[in-house]
Amino acid sequence: MEVSFELLGEVRVLVDGVAVDLGHARQRCVLAALLVDHNQPQSLDSLTEKVWGDRAPRQARSTLYGYLFRLRQVLGGVPGAVIGRTAAGYVLPVDAGTVDLERFRALVERSRSGDDDEALALVERALGLWRGEALGGISGGWADAVRQGLDRERWSAVAHRNDIALRLGRHESLLAELSTLVKRDPLDERLAAQFMLALHRSGRPAEAMAHYQVIRRALADELGTDPGPRLRELYQQMLVGEVAPPAVGRPPTPRQLPAPPRLFVGRDDELVVLDGALARQGGSLAVVGAGGSGKTALALHWAHRALDRFPDGQLYADLRGFDPTGPPTSTSAVLLGFLGALGATSLPADVDGQAALYRSLVAGRRLLVVLDNARDTDQVLALLPGGTTCTTLITSRHRLTALTASRGVPTLALDVLPDDDARALLSGHLSPQRVSAEPEAVATLLGHCAGLPLAIGIVAARAAAHPGFPLAAFADELGEADGLDGLDTAELSTSLRAVFAASLRALSADAARLFALLGIAPGPDIGLPAVAALADVPVPRARSLLEELETGHLVRQHVPGRYRMHDLVRLCAAERARDEETALGRVIDFYVRSGLAAERALYPHETPAAVFSDQPGPADDGTALAWLVTEYTCLIAAQEAAVRAGDHPAVWRLAWALDTFQRRQGHLHRDQITVWRAGLAAADRAGDLDARALASWRLGAALARAGDVDEASRHLHRALTLSREAGDPSGEAAVHQSLAWVRETQGDDRQALHHAVSALDVLGTLDRPIRHAHALNQAGWYAARLNDLDQARHYCEAALSLARAHADRDAEARTLDSLGYIAHRAGHHDKAVAHYELALTHFEDVGATYDYADTVERLADAHAAAGRPDRAREHRLRALALFLQQHRTADADRVALTVEADARKRGNPRRGS
């Protein structure tokens, strides 16, 4: 007798090909619930919610009993279809091979290995199991959520099938279906690439390139982003006319998981739930519970146990949702970290673009994403993978109800450890013999810990430090502390304060003082030199005190030389801080002096009077850059602390310390605007004229880069006035140069030249040779744009002499680019080519990739004007590739249109199809 349970269409049971009468829709919903999670017990409450949602009738339980009774009767003669009952609920323990959904998944998994011919046959067999919409004939919230998930699995398998078929050269047979699919999901870049490839290989390259423009506009309109790197690369290949075979190389494999907990006990039921919820590709789960209850330990223990399920890697982020000293980790910061781990080299400036690129890079990959310590639903939404192959595990102290409602992500509530498991954890930290020798003392200790793993670890560290002391002595100490306010429950608060108090009494006086001061330190973690500044002790002494705190599990050295506290421990520390204003001032001053030194290494040409510092700095700009990357969040937090403390000079000096770093990291425009708004507010409050001029200038420049030219112009004109009042000609010149750039973006080259010449006039009176060279070049550029070529050449030749005399390759490269532009406009195209090629060499030397791309495009124009269309086409394609990498959509579109127009004029034959 052949039995088949079917969910991929109308829910039904077949015996020797004949359907069994399963009754009405709600009764079939009960069967579907048992089959979707076959072999997993379903409680009556769970079944009630799946059948009726939040509209269960008063007699729901008795009605369910009736459904289950009738299903048992209907299935009584079906082998392997016995609905059983366990202590955990009802279960239908069927063979996975008899359920079409499980057969579908198994076939798809098998198709991911072996040769393409066999893989294609397997995935087509899998797709052939679908008879329509999954769970057909069943309605309700649970059914809809399951249906959506299964639909994503189905279309992931379709995309997988398409990749294999294209590799086998079956593009023409796919065209009709792909045309339908891209209309069904117009934002799916993988489908778009498949459709374009099929069109191109079927002799329809123009339609393929036209579809790229369709999805590019759709992504820009709907998501505010550009196509991902794979789609852009395919488009570039089509422009060249030589499309490579589908890539089979693998992207980087991230391995970001922290180490698993050294000791882990119990949680057997929770691990079963995690296995069940995350067994399927695309599964998600949120573990929620009180602070210190072991959510992170559970997540990491499970993740390391399940590593073989995620061959494409693991991403991890601590979202710092409840850090008492600062805001949660920004979505952008997490996305940038993920994108770097996934191999992205050119990053969008905005969060929406970063999220879209992230979803593109993880699509089709079997990845685990762990989002630890989430504050709320909003913090994690943009971090959820969009495909069906990634698994997401979230931890939070909040219930994340909105995440369940909007995305169907289930939650697992984590309670404190039961007594037996708490005792086992304590035994693991100490020894079973020591724990069993004093049962009454152990009971007292565990009673104070209230089943909280964090508290047990701290108590155990105290006892382990004194192996000869009786545990009763530590139990007596715990009764002497008062309650810790502001935590999850009164009971946990009392227990933790008692635990911390006992641990602190065991510390030396200096270590206890440092513990308290670490509670007020700005930032999510702290480096050893900053600790020394905070405590006003030498670095070796700071290291020794930190080792004492590490021994007591009160701090953790999460990377060499950097220390972090659990946020509950940090709350306790902050409560005990004394003389915190003085200590906070010391560590803020450390960040100010060190930050200004790093900034000076990046930009050595001039330091404004408002931020002068004689602190010795890093030996080179590479060291400075690495320090700024490491300390970036702490510098931001230090500025916020300075704002709260009313330390106005520190606020604007920290803004300057971050300025060059933020400009070079173009994706940090928003942060730069934020720090300079704070800097300007502090300068206004302090009434410091130099600082007001500086902050107005830098805020205006940051706003201009972000595209807000109107507000930028207002701040820059204010900066101009203030610089004149302060008698600061260097600052006045700098503002004129920024205003010139703003006027250029507004299309007013004449006013741009006016500001450039004004800057030049001012700098001519100062001994600032490199700044003078840049100003000469800027004036020459605008004169050339206004077709005053003789004056433009005069300016730029003078700039080139200065740049070469002072060996500044950046200034030399920019000036050579301008001279190439001047020669091109004068009709001297070979001379223009020579200038451009030398400029490119220097741009490459200094790593100025943005300017390099612009010069490549101008080099192409010069070759075209000189009658060398092949060279022009070659360089336009280089420029196009660079613009796409830099997400410069308008520039890329302009060059692409030129390439396509040139190809049509020349009647360029299609190649590589």
Automatic annotation (TrEMBL):
Alphabetized UniProt keyword annotations: DNA-binding, TPR repeat, Transcription, Transcription regulation
UniProt cross-references to Gene3D superfamilies, sorted A to Z: P-loop containing nucleotide triphosphate hydrolases (3.40.50.300), Tetratricopeptide repeat domain (1.25.40.10), Winged helix-like DNA-binding domain superfamily/Winged helix DNA-binding domain (1.10.10.10)
One term of GO molecular function: DNA binding
Repeat (TPR) residue spans along the chain: 693-726
CDD domains assigned: BTAD
InterPro entries documented for this protein: AfsR-DnrI-RedD_regulator, BTAD, OmpR/PhoB-type_DNA-bd, P-loop_NTPase, Sig_transdc_resp-reg_C-effctor, TPR-like_helical_dom_sf, TPR_rpt, WH-like_DNA-bd_sf
GO biological process terms on file: phosphorelay signal transduction system; regulation of DNA-templated transcription
Domain of life: Bacteria
Coiled coil: none
Domain annotation OmpR/PhoB-type: ranges: 17-92
Domain Bacterial transcriptional activator: 99-239
PROSITE patterns documented for this protein: TPR
PANTHER family hit by this protein: TRANSCRIPTIONAL REGULATOR REDD, TRANSCRIPTIONAL REGULATOR REDD-RELATED
Family (UniProt): Belongs to the AfsR/DnrI/RedD regulatory family.
Entry protein name: Tetratricopeptide repeat protein
